[in-house]
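For reproducibility, we list the full input for the iron/sulfur cluster complex.
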Amino acid sequence: MPAFDLHAALDGHDRVFLAFSGGKESVVLAHMLEPWRDRVTLLWTNTGHMAPHMVEFVRAYSERFRLVELAPASLMGFWRDSGIPSEVVPTANASGDRLPRIAAWQACCAVNRTQPKVDHLARYGAPCAYVHGQRRDDPLIPTWEQRYPENVEAIAPLWEWAEADVMAYIARHGLALPAQYGEGYRDSLECIVCPAPMTAQRMAYLRRAYPEAAETAAQAMRVVLQETERAAIAIAEVICAEK
Ligand code: SF4
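The corresponding predicted structure, in tokenized form, follows.
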């Protein structure tokens, strides 16, 4: 796996924050940061809709690290006022000209998962390192540049790692992961009601473990499909009329 000099990156930083979700990358990073444990604080955004077994998993880390639990204003408030998070967004539903509103899921994640951490770092105010688990090849992670407060130096030790590198590190060090990793879905579950980005593996796991949340996500996907279909049909009708 690609080497990263964490010693050099953390040199001169008395305070280190780690973006912690209980997902595989954050578990790897917490393990890598064990030697600096006295100066590390885990920052976790509890969206209020995280899988309960993951909430338990994350809170257990407070036995070894300082853990700060943050929360967004209201995930469901965002869905209501800004839109259901989706991969596909008809513009009329994005602007609110047509209801229900639908929003890019990246915007929902930015407001409800990332922003509480950014706000905490800004409130902290003093120079600090912010270690996060973004990887270059993760298709589910927004690639826009995060606007960190000026007091923050962002560090991404896993940027060049592939998913296989992450899993190999976990296997080599015998690190525990939340239950879903052994049950067909190998990612974090920070919002079990989230309809996007959805995969067959995620939905299959949710239907077994959290059927009510799976139905909420499915219903949101049906709404998005219906609205997207309407917008697509309108385009198709224009194209067909041209012939
Ligand atoms: S995981 Fe889904 S519901 Fe949760 S913040 Fe991101 S887009 Fe919103």
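The domain at 6-242 is CATH 3.40.50.620 (Rossmann fold). The chain has one domain: 6-242. Both points were considered when choosing residues for closer inspection.
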